[in-house]
Each structure stands twice: as structure tokens, then as C-alpha cells.
Amino acid sequence: MPFKYCTTRNGIEFKVILSGAKLLFIIKFVKNSTFENSYLKTALYIVPIYKLQLLLAMNPDEAILHLHKEPNISRIINSIKIPDFTPSQKIYDDLLESIISQQLSVKVASVIYSRFLNLFPDNYPHPELVNSIEFDQLRKAGLSNQKAGYIQNVASFTLQHNLENKDWQNMSDDDILGFLTQIKGVGPWTVQMLLMFSLGRPDVFPIDDLGIQQGMAKIFGLQESGKALKMKMVELAEPWRPYRTVACRYIWRWKDTA
């Protein structure tokens, strides 16, 4: 069954039917007394999914209205609040911080990241400097051999592909996922976090995230595990499109406070 989504903005009704990797994007001009010659007009477009996502952007109010249509996530939304945030748009910086903080407490990760930044003259890890710094200096800042290697992999990739000035708006979520996971040490989960919190993409669903798995299992009373659990999660999250990012933020928050 194709996904359907409707919204109205500025007197224009948008009706969307999801079909494979494309969208049938139907725009109707709604009858409105503010128009001198009021009439209905329909236009049909086929556009890539991510173009619609960028059009919708991260609209909190509209996301909440849409998610309230699904009773289980609506109950979670009514019980808690999530903080506002502004996407950083800094993929290179956030990649470095993400790698450094992996498998560490927030406090320890903050200390090591500060030490890492202090290695550089202006407290900023310019990729050319990270790429050329002695391995021992990274180790003395608290990085493991593996993380130090991953950090330099990111710096090399950044120099090669000019990540600091890349136009991410012209890339779909899947394109970005495939592009950044070329870096040794950067996996799908890390890129999904970047899509959600660095770029503010509205419809990311990190199915391998343990918190989301545990949260959805509790919300929906799921008994499945492994592949069967993931298949069920995808099915249950389908009504949340195109705002699965927002739904996941509520699940994380709810799980931590429940």
C-alpha cells in the first residue's frame, strides 16, 4: 500500500502518494475567498523523495499534527516534551566528535574531545593538521589507536572531497549514507545521526539503534527479535512518514524518562 500524506500551506493543498523511489506529487489550489478568481487546479509531478523532504523540512508543529494520527506515538507525544534544536550543518566537525565519543560516557567523551581540540593552534582540527599530526599526540589526548586512525581517515576524506564546503542539499539521504560510509570507521548508524542532527533531515529511521528497538518493543509490546523485529519496526513506523526523525526523538526521550 503506497504511503499517502496531505498538508495545506498558504491556501495550497499538497497531496503526496509514495511510489517506490519516487513520489507522485499532487498540488491542488484550494478554493479560498482571498483569491479574486477562486478555482481548483491540479498539477501532477514525479520528484525524488528527498526533494519533498527538503520542502517539508523539520516543521515541528506540522510533524506533531501528523504523528498524532497514529495512536501509539500520539500517546508518547502527550506524555513528554523534546527540546528544540538547530541542525549544525557541520558534517566534518560532527563526524570527529561522534567517533571520539563512541562507547564513552558523555562526561568522558567531553574531556577527551576538549583535549583533542587543544592539540591545534586555534582549537580547531583543520583536516590538513589532523591528517599530519603525530599519532602519539592523538594517543596522549586519550584516543585509542583505532579511534586515532578513524579520525585521520575522516580528515583525509574531507580533504579529498571538500566536506567542509559540500552542498548536502543536493544529495538524498541514501546518497549521503553511501558517500560517508566509504570512510573506514564510519558506519550507517553514525551517518543516520548526522542526517538527523547535523542536517535536520525529517524522515530518518535508525532501525539498528538499540534505544529505538527497545522503545518500540515496549510501546507496541513486540516479542520479535533480530530480522523479524526490524521488519515489524519498519511496518509500524510507516504511518510516521515523512517525520520518522521526530518520532524517534520522542521515543528516545520517552525511553529515558519512562
Task: Walk me through the structure.
It is a single chain. The chain is of the alpha+beta class. Among the domains are: 1-56, no CATH class; 91-198, Endonuclease III, domain 1 (Orthogonal Bundle), CATH 1.10.340. 52% of the residues lie in helices and 11% in strands. The chain has 13 helices and four strands. The protein has helices spanning 49-56, 60-67, 71-79, 91-101, 106-117, 127-132, 135-140, 145-161, 173-180, 188-198, 210-220, 226-237, 244-257, and strands at 4-9, 12-19, 22-29, 42-48. It has a four-stranded antiparallel sheet. The relative contact order is 0.12. Mean pLDDT is 85; it is low at 26-43.
Q: Which CATH class of the domain at 91-198 is shown?
A: Mainly Alpha
- Here the CATH topology of the domain at 91-198 equals Endonuclease III, domain 1
Unreliable residue stretches: 26-43
Helical residue percent band = 40-55%
**Rg from alpha-carbon coordinates:** 21 Å
Describe the structure in brief.
Helices cover 52% and strands 11% of the residues. It has 258 residues and is of the alpha+beta class.
Task: Record the SSE blueprint.
Elements: E1 4-9, E2 12-19, E3 22-29, E4 42-48, H1 49-56, H2 60-67, H3 71-79, H4 91-101, H5 106-117, H6 127-132, H7 135-140, H8 145-161, H9 173-180, H10 188-198, H11 210-220, H12 226-237, H13 244-257
Antiparallel strand pairs: 1-2, 2-3, 3-4
Helix pairs in contact: 3-13, 4-8, 4-10, 9-10, 11-13
